[in-house]
Specification:
alpha+beta; Deoxyribonuclease I, Chain A; 2 domains; 6-stranded mixed sheet; 38% helix; globular
């Protein structure tokens, strides 16, 4: 039988945690205290946190958009304008450093978790791989001859103020190559070279007729030759005889530097100088490429070109010559400045750009290209390469 409760029967009172009956007022107080305990002690943090989070998210997206658009746009602009715009030419000189922000922006994009951000960052990432990706991959040299033995060549800007034996001994520290091209050689440094390492190189040439001293030290006979160009190429030129059947032309070049770090205090009066130095280096690259193409001989070009691989001068030179660092080196291969340049104004960090080059014609195959580790008092690091005679088809 169903039990029916009458309305007039007494109802059970709520019981508290202590087992004692509680009233409705006591229940209300208890519920209010529980709600207060579960609320944050500082509710204003939630009100402030939302705008801050929105600002961070918006700022991150804006940064991604700007970076992903500006870097490819600057590169495309320079491809069209070249070094005619001095400020764009200066920016392009440090192109490798444009890609360091990718190390920060990719984790930021992954944190945001938006597919659109991935697509944006893919633009500068693909540009980096196009420009420099091959520098971080292993290289396989083409077929080459073992006789005569490969040539070990080196280029080193000694700095015109260096006159010490330590800087001269860099040539020994770097393995005494077969042919050494030196730039910014002083009379005092010539004396040091002749005294410390002169007996290693039976053939030597020192030239002070142009801007700064140029020197070539060789284990093979040197014959000085002149250019048929009507302008000064800022290069000394030789014919090197390895044996009766192997000869090649050797250039040791050192065109004008922009000297931006020296003259930054004279801004904007230095702008015409910047424009002129870029123009002269471009003219050197163009005329030297024409000369190499015309004579058609086996050729090795060494020197401090004061031009990076994004310059117009470099484009002209590599239209007929190969870059040893590109074909057989690893990494960016930056050579200047060798150390923190505390004697310059403003101070600059070490190894910012690669302006010391070893170039060669199709008669050679590059087996190895490296940047030296010792530099004495110079502000440049030496560059070395092993070049073999390419096998005949």
């Amino acid at each position: 039988m169903e039990k029916i409760l009458r309305n007039d029967q007494p109802r059970a009172q709520p019981v508290g945690d202590d087992g004692q009956p509680t009233t409705l007022a006591t229940q209300a107080i208890t519920q209010t205290a529980a709600q207060t305990a579960t609320q944050p002690k500082r509710p204003w943090l939630q009100q402030v946190g939302a705008p801050v989070g929105w600002l961070l998210s918006t700022g991150a997206r804006t940064l991604l958009w700007l970076y992903s658009g500006v870097v490819p746009a600057l590169w495309l602009w320079h491809q069209w304008a070249g070094d005619r715009l001095w400020w764009l030419a200066l920016l392009s000189s440090v192109t490798p450093h444009f890609f360091w922000p990718l190390l920060l922006l990719w984790p930021l994009a992954l944190w945001q978790g938006r597919r659109r951000d991935y697509l944006l960052l893919s633009l500068p990432t693909l540009l980096f791989l196009y420009l420099y990706g091959a520098l971080f991959l292993p290289n396989r040299p083409p077929a080459y001859q073992t006789e005569p033995r490969p040539l070990r060549v080196m280029s080193f800007n000694m700095w015109t103020g260096a006159r010490d034996a330590k800087t001269a001994r860099v040539i020994i520290d770097e393995g005494l190559p077969d042919i050494v091209a030196l730039q910014e050689v002083s009379y005092g440094m010539q004396y040091r070279i002749e005294q410390s390492i002169g007996n290693y190189f039976p053939y030597q040439s020192f030239d002070y007729s142009g801007r700064g001293g140029l020197a070539v030290l060789s284990r093979y006979p040197l014959e000085r030759i002149t250019s048929d160009m009507l302008i000064d190429l800022f290069c000394s030129q030789f014919r090197v005889t390895v044996d009766t059947t192997h000869q090649f032309r050797l250039y040791n070049c050192h065109p004008y530097s922009t000297h931006f770090s020296y003259n930054a205090e004279e801004w904007p009066a230095m702008v015409p100088q910047v424009e002129e130095t870029f123009r002269l280096r471009t003219l050197l690259g163009e005329r030297l490429a024409q000369e190499v193409r015309r004579h058609g001989e086996a050729t090795i070009v060494l020197g401090d070109f004061n031009s990076t691989d994004q310059s117009d001068a470099y484009r002209h030179l590599t239209s007929v010559l190969s870059d040893a660092q590109r074909t057989s080196g690893w990494g960016f291969g930056h050579t200047f400045p060798a150390g923190t340049a505390i004697f310059r104004r403003p101070p600059i960090l070490p190894r910012l750009v690669r302006i010391d080059l070893i170039l060669y014609s199709s008669a050679f195959a590059a087996l190895q290209a490296t940047v030296g580790s010792t530099y004495g008092r110079s502000d440049h690091l030496p560059v070395r390469a092993v070049l073999a005679w390419r096998a005949q088809p």
